[in-house]
Amino acid sequence: MNERINQINSAINPLKEQIIHHKLYSVIKTIEDVKVFTQYHIFAVWDFMSLLKSLQQNLTCTTVPWFPKGTGEIRQLINEIVLGEESDVDLNGTIKSHFELYKDAMKQCGADTNQIETFLSVLKDTGSLHQALESSNTPQAARDFIHFTFKIINSNKDYLQAAIFTFGREDLIPAMFMSIVEDIHKQFPDSIAVFKYYLERHIEVDGDHHSHLALKMISNLCGNDDLKWKEVEQAAIESLKMRIALWDGVYNDLTKA
Q1: Pick from 9, 34, 21, 12: which is nearest to 174 by CA?
Q2: Which has the least CB within 10 A, 20, 46, 152, 158?
Q3: Degrees to nearest 5, angle at CA 26 with 244 and 254
Q4: What is the CA radius of gyration of the chain?
Q5: Residues 51-89: pLDDT tens digits?
């Protein structure tokens, strides 16, 4: 593997360990806890889709007339992930994005979707991220998470977008959390089946193949530019710190009583 990638992995491994062993998982025990978790996490799911579509715009040709853009490998990676994330299938075989599937999971378990729906409605009408976050009363930890991602998106640096996509993605789902969801599913299969399915599908779609190609994408975009590699490492560190802060926000919400 690229020595630069090894260096980044060494720098971020302690943060990944913090995420995998976060205290949040130990306090998710009931359907009510899952509801609170999803009301935060849905914003990260939407945020991920926005980052992915930004990469698609930057690294493939999405305009007319069409021209070949970038390398075939990167185009295939981005378009393959977009296909999996934007048009997967639900439990009934209906084609849906992972975001829509997640909203279905929230509705099944009785979580409140008003915040995310208001957020999207206001954002669509006004184009203002700030106004949408304010109007929907989005939790502060979720706001901070989204602001960081859009700071990277608005930098117009495709290698930084690729950095947080590759190193700060939704693939850090620990076995402990899956075990908790399995236990709750045994007690309340009619309330959490869609959420369990979403997690399983996300792990399956976001497998080793995509991870390997994503690392190649970083290498291609940074080349031998020392400054780019340094920026990529910093962005990767910041993205994982933002994930920890998001989990802290959910934990504090669950334990404030």
Answers
A1: 21
A2: 20
A3: 70
A4: 18
A5: 999 999 999 999 999 999 988 888 988 898 898 889 989
